Amino acid sequence: MRVDTDAGPIQTERLLLRRSVPDDAETISAYRSDPNVNAQQGWERTDVGSVRADIVEMSRRSPGEPGGWVQYTVEDRESGRIVGDVGLSLADPEPNVVKVGYTIAPEFQGSGYATEAIRALVDYAFDTLGADAVRAHASAANAPSIRVAEKVGMHLIEKREYRDGDEVWYGVRYEVRRDER
Ligand SMILES: CC(C)(COP(=O)(O)OP(=O)(O)OC[C@H]1O[C@@H](n2cnc3c(N)ncnc32)[C@H](O)[C@@H]1OP(=O)(O)O)[C@@H](O)C(=O)NCCC(=O)NCCS
């Protein structure tokens, strides 16, 4: 896996993916605190201070480096508004597997933004970082998330049962390998 210490912005037709900065915290905190968004996320604390601290922690890391997530803020290029965030992380200890995650603010969902951003991030993981596979995890009940994974070329690898006390839920793992692109 290559480490991209420059990690410049990634541009798509409508979007700009740039490393998240502390000033993004207020906007990101607002949509990540939405119960429908938060239910699908691993972030336990979504208050502005915690989001800012997470952004600072993640910004010390370069894409391709082990140790945790690297986050990009997704902006609409035309308006400059933040529409969501995406991230990547190594699937340690598996070599050369990159995990991606994605969140689009509710008011901007349904416009193909997640698909457009994740397609670019998958390309980046293969072409710049040299990944052999790119992976996404979701709840089996999260139809929009699964649809995004499918639209960027991933397919179902595994469905697993998870237990959290009395609660039982199913998680899915989607993946695309370099030779399947
Ligand atoms: C998942 C998420 C990022 C998708 O963002 P988005 O920008 O709306 O996604 P897109 O517009 O690119 O694509 C969504 C797809 O899901 C489909 N979809 C939406 N709701 C659906 C539903 N209830 N059932 C089936 N498909 C659905 C859309 O029709 C679209 O597919 P299509 O282009 O074939 O019509 C967004 O819903 C989100 O942030 N959810 C909360 C956080 C989350 O779940 N993150 C992923 C964690 S693994």
Give an overview of the whole structure.
The chain has an eight-stranded mixed β-sheet with strand order 1-2-3-4-5-6-8-7, sandwiched between helices. By secondary structure, it is of the alpha+beta class. The chain has one domain (10-136): Aminopeptidase, CATH 3.40.630.30. The chain has helices at 25-32, 35-38, 48-59, 113-127, 143-151; strands at 10-11, 15-19, 70-76, 82-90, 97-104, 133-139, 155-164, 167-177. Residues 37, 40-41, 102-104, 109-115, 138, 142-145, 147-148 line the site of coenzyme A.
The topology string of helices and strands comes to EEHHHEEEHEHEE
N-C termini distance = 18 Å
Low-confidence stretches: none
Radius of gyration: 16 Å
Strand content: 25-35%
Strand pairing plus helix content: what structural class? Answer: alpha+beta
Principal-axis shape: globular
The mean pLDDT is: 96
Please write the CATH class name.
Alpha Beta
Q: Specify the number of helices.
A: 5
Q: What fold name stands as the CATH topology?
A: Aminopeptidase
Biggest sheet descriptor: 8 strands, mixed
Q: What percent of the residues sit in helical stretches (DSSP H or I)?
A: 25-40%
Number of folding domains?
A: 1
Q: Write out the strand line-up for the largest beta sheet, numbering strands in chain order.
A: 1-2-3-4-5-6-8-7
Name given to the CATH homologous superfamily: Gcn5-related N-acetyltransferase (GNAT)
List cofactors, ions and other ligands: coenzyme A
The name of the CATH architecture is: 3-Layer(aba) Sandwich
DSSP summary, beta strand count: 8
